[in-house]
Amino acid sequence: MVSRQTVRKMVSGARPRPRTSLTPTERRNLRRAKIVRRDLSRLSPDDVSLWSGISLPRCEQLVSLAQFQSLGSVGSSLAADLWELGFSSVKELSNQSPPAMYTAFCRIVGTRVDPCVEDVFRCAVAQARNSKLAPEHKNWWYWTPYRGTDRVAPQRTRVGRPAAPTSRRKPLPSKPFLT
Predict the structure, then answer these.
(1) Which helix (H) or strand (E) holds 28?
(2) Taking Cα atoms as reference points, which of 115, 107, 106 lies closest to residue 148?
(3) What distance in Å separates the CA atoms of residue 22 and residue 27, rounded to the nearest whole number?
(4) pTM of the full structure
(5) Residues 6+ apart with CB under 8 A from 37
(6) Looking at residue 104, what DSSP letter applies?
(7) For the chain, where do the domains classified as CATH 1.10.150 start and end?
């Protein structure tokens, strides 16, 4: 069951607050600097570090995690996984191969992980390549049929164009028609 507050946020278009593991000191420093977690994805790490007093490398990680979580189907766990794979921005994802990312992730973890993770990687790469992706393409399950392929762009339909003919033309008569 969805709470009223969640519905209100969904209707108002408010972005969800990214989940980041903050220490009590980091949380206090961000509060003093009046930096809200959902705004981290729009700020530069330099500004966050300057205003909050948190170290620059940690601010780079916090901003990256918030940027990753601004993508559809990417939660806090997968954002941390993308960070572990060595990515520090959404822009870096745009030229990646999801199957290669999945293989590298399995190597880091040391075991084969759920293949749905590849679908989420594919979804994240598609959003990094096209910021105006259709809402249904921001769901990881849309990409399941493309698992194991390098396909990242969604299928395009020909709107307003007639469909290709399904049957061949009628064969010509065997004898020429004479009048």
Answers:
(1) helix 24-32
(2) 115
(3) 6
(4) 0.72
(5) 17, 18, 20, 22, 30, 66
(6) H
(7) 18-70
* CB-based contact 139:133 (threshold 8 Å): no
For residue 63, the tally of other CB atoms under 10 A from its CB is 24
Question: How much is the pLDDT for 38?
Answer: 83
Task: Give the span between the Cα atoms of 82 and 12, in whole angstroms.
Answer: 29
Angle at 71 between CA 70 and CA 75, to 5 degrees: 80
Pair of tokens at residue 75 = 């939660």
Give the model's pLDDT for residue 98: 92
Long-range contacts of 129-138 (CB under 8 A, 24+ apart): 129/94, 129/153, 135/72, 138/71, 138/72, 138/73
At which residue do the structure tokens 């990094």 appear? 128
Query: Would you state the pLDDT for residue 21?
Result: 80
Instruction: Spell out the CATH class of 18-70.
Output: mainly alpha
Profile the chain (179 residues) by mean pLDDT over runs of 10 residues. Answer: 43 50 90 90 93 94 93 91 93 92 93 92 93 89 86 61 44 54
Instruction: Quote the DSSP letter at residue 70.
Output: T
